[in-house]
Write a structure and sequence with these properties.
- The protein is mostly helical.
- It folds into two domains: 100 residues, Multidrug-efflux Transporter Regulator, Chain: A, Domain 2 (Orthogonal Bundle); 123 residues, Orthogonal Bundle (Multidrug-efflux Transporter Regulator, Chain: A, Domain 2), CATH 1.10.1660.10.
- The strands form three sheets. Strands 5-7-6 form a three-stranded antiparallel sheet. The chain has a two-stranded antiparallel ribbon with strand order 1-2.
- A hairpin with a 2-residue loop joins β3 and β4.
- α3 packs antiparallel against α4, α3 runs antiparallel to α10 and α9 crosses α10.
- The longest helix has 36 residues.
- It is elongated, with a radius of gyration of 24 Å.
- 25% of the residues are buried.
Length: 233
């Protein structure tokens, strides 16, 4: 079996040898053999393990990648594959959601969302449930001046109008694409004035990013399947 030094693999994958050792310390790869002089050396199996980690990291969050590699190391291959496929499903759901909200923006008569008839005013919990976000996120966006609530005269609780819910939906869809508060405020102002061109461009960028992430995830899965095949030999 072909063997490699840490420097050879590090150079090929454009990472440091420290990074390779960290993956080893995190228990992400098979046990690493050593020479008689106690130097590490890697086999083709390790090379594929490192390649898989780097490929998965381009499309998946770090905790997911680490869990997938640990599952694979312990021969729990089906669980590893289910985990990466589950993440792909979440991206597909988010993509569908962004497309739905883009359609919603263009609908002047915004009285329904996902076939749910909207009330004139909603509590923060109701708004969070409809938008699929935490109430803490809505409070943060209000603190930043992106949205505004009114207070229920009877109990003092926050109440959000349909127009504010529309903004909450937009923010929740674009928060990974529009990075700066001032830029988001500008987009929301365009929404208020029904100047939809810039808002739509931002949504198209969000959809493009999701599509790119799906492609990167598929490439990572391809390397994972190669790694699993190596492990099963």
């Amino acid at each position: 079996m072909e063997t490699y030094t840490p420097k050879q693999i590090a150079k090929t994958l454009n990472v440091s040898t420290t990074t390779l050792r960290r993956y080893e310390e995190l228990d992400l790869i098979p046990a690493v053999p050593r020479t008689k002089s106690n130097h590490r050396f890697y086999t083709s199996l390790h090379f594929q393990a490192f390649t898989t980690i780097r490929a998965l990291l381009k499309g998946y969050d770090i905790p997911i990648v680490y869990e997938v590699m640990r599952l694979s190391k312990n021969a729990r291959y089906e669980e590893a594959l289910w985990l990466v496929n589950e993440q792909q499903y979440h991206i597909q759901v988010e993509k569908q959601r962004v497309e739905e909200i883009l359609t919603m923006i263009q609908n002047a008569d915004f009285t329904k969302y996902k076939n749910v008839k909207l009330k004139e005013y909603m509590s923060i919990g109701e708004a969070a449930q409809i938008a699929g976000v935490n109430t803490s996120a809505i409070r943060h966006w209000e603190h930043e001046g992106l949205i505004h609530s009114e207070r229920n005269k009877e109990n003092g609780y926050r109440m959000f109008s349909i127009s504010q819910l529309r903004k909450i939906l937009v923010i929740s869809s674009l928060r990974k694409t529009v990075y700066y508060i001032e830029n988001m405020k500008s987009l929301l102002n365009n929404l208020d004035t029904q100047n939809y061109d810039k808002v739509e461009r931002s949504f198209q960028l969000a959809l493009q990013n999701l599509n790119n992430q799906l492609v990167l995830q598929l490439k990572g899965i391809a390397e994972l399947i190669k790694y699993i095949s190596f492990c099963q030999r």
